[in-house]
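Exercise 7. Given the encoded structure of a 221-residue chain, write a plausible sequence.
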């Protein structure tokens, strides 16, 4: 009797393990939507991440987002959208100012940091004036108590060691598509609009928000 019960328990464990493995395999086999890059916030809301298109891991996402930009340019060519633009390298401000002037860009934000290091500084830009945005940022910190690590970073910023690795720009869909095809310094153009991701959030009865999180050219966080 003991041996029979033991055998039944072993069979039961084996069946449970098989079911669990089958469910796990089925879960992993479900193809992710290549057009979406989402995460869930602590409050359960959906974060729609825009700009992570500069690495090999996100090649499928980049391709889908490029198709979406093409469709926008075809259906709504004159409608204006904001887009996150990861760059193919770290650029000094002077180079970006030259790019802005040559291409007639309207910058909303710049993403900066020291090449090869973890971290980011995001500055809102008015009238395409990056230097003024930096001065305003530094002046706001003058009366605040900051850590020694932050002091070091601010010194790097003042010394010009921070370089720009991404931009947020606003332009027509047609123009954004042209820039994505013609501007060699752009690693991609990711429009701040993802209907599929929004539908996904709504299907979960969750609110959603867009998060600009452009990839760096060296893969640093």
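Solution.
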């Amino acid at each position: 009797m003991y041996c029979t019960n033991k055998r039944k328990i072993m069979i039961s464990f084996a069946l449970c393990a098989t079911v669990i493995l089958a469910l796990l395999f089925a879960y992993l086999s479900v193809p992710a939507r290549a057009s979406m890059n989402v995460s869930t916030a602590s409050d359960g809301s959906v974060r729609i991440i825009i700009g992570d298109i500069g690495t090999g891991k996100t090649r499928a996402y980049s391709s889908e987002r490029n198709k979406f930009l093409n469709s926008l340019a075809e259906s709504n060519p004159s409608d204006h959208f904001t887009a996150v633009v990861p760059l193919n390298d770290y650029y000094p401000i002077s180079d970006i100012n030259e790019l802005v002037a040559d291409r007639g860009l309207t910058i909303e934000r710049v993403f900066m940091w020291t090449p090869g290091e973890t971290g980011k500084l995001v500055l809102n830009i008015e009238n395409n004036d990056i230097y003024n945005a930096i001065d305003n940022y530094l002046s706001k910190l003058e009366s605040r108590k900051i850590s020694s690590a932050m002091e070091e970073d601010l010194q790097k910023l003042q010394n010009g060691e921070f370089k720009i690795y991404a931009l947020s720009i606003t332009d027509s869909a047609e123009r954004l598509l042209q820039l994505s095809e013609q501007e060699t310094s752009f690693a991609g153009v990711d429009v701040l609009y993802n209907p599929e991701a929004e539908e996904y959030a709504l299907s979960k009865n969750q609110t959603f928000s867009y998060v600009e999180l452009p990839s760096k050219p060296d893969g640093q966080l």
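Remark. The radius of gyration is 23 Å. Students should compare their own answers with the one above.
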